[in-house]
Amino acid sequence: MENNALAPPCSSRVSEQPQEIENSPPELIVSVKNLVKRFGALQVLNGVSLEIKRGQLVAIVGRSGSGKSTLLRCMNALESIEGGELQVCGHDVGAPSRLARRELRSDVGIVFQSYNLFPHLTVERNITLALTAVKKHSRAEAGVIASRVLALVGLLDKAASYPEQLSGGQSQRVAIARSLALSPQLMLFDEVTSALDPELTGEVLKVMEDLSRQGMTMVLVTHEMAFARRLADVVIFMHQGRVWEMGPPEELFNHPKTPEFKQFISSGL
User: What pTM was computed for the model?
Assistant: First the structure.
């Protein structure tokens, strides 16, 4: 079991039909069509459409209030939608039932700016809690998975520590490890470095870079333009609740098509 802790659920089918999978186009993990989201009279998402393929790292950038974080929260059914279509990891994210939300979130991990670690539990138990309570793993099985994901984020030596003994960067890396432990197909990151100083930001970005190189599909809302430009497969610029520009980073940053994006990147935001 532990050898599949980070593998997508369909991984067992790859070995049965290697030639067919190899020659197939990349699988769509996220499909968004004309998505609409309102908070009262305020329309936050206004006809958003995009696609994300398995293995891609997609960076969503834009000014505060452009709808970036709301879009991310819709992908994990943390926010309902008022219109359009949203498919994530094979789940129809429209008005999901409680069971459908649970199934969706077993495939989609999300990490926020705040770490949300339980202060009275050790790092290891923060990770194993969902594995034993939700996934019904034994404590021994959960411990093996926790050790693996902590090693992935470079914190195996902190397994017995408590959150108050960690730096901000270490706490954020534990939050990432906790999501990875549930074997998601897709990882969402919402401004996970915005509260960290440059050195701690580098620690977290290094973990995300390693995950990308290992093939994890990731969507991140970020202000780290250098990171997005260097590692993202696709950059999405959101403005006024819409996808204003979208494409490979070199194309977007070197040849912005709209004055809004040109102003955004020149401002250094």
Answer: 0.86
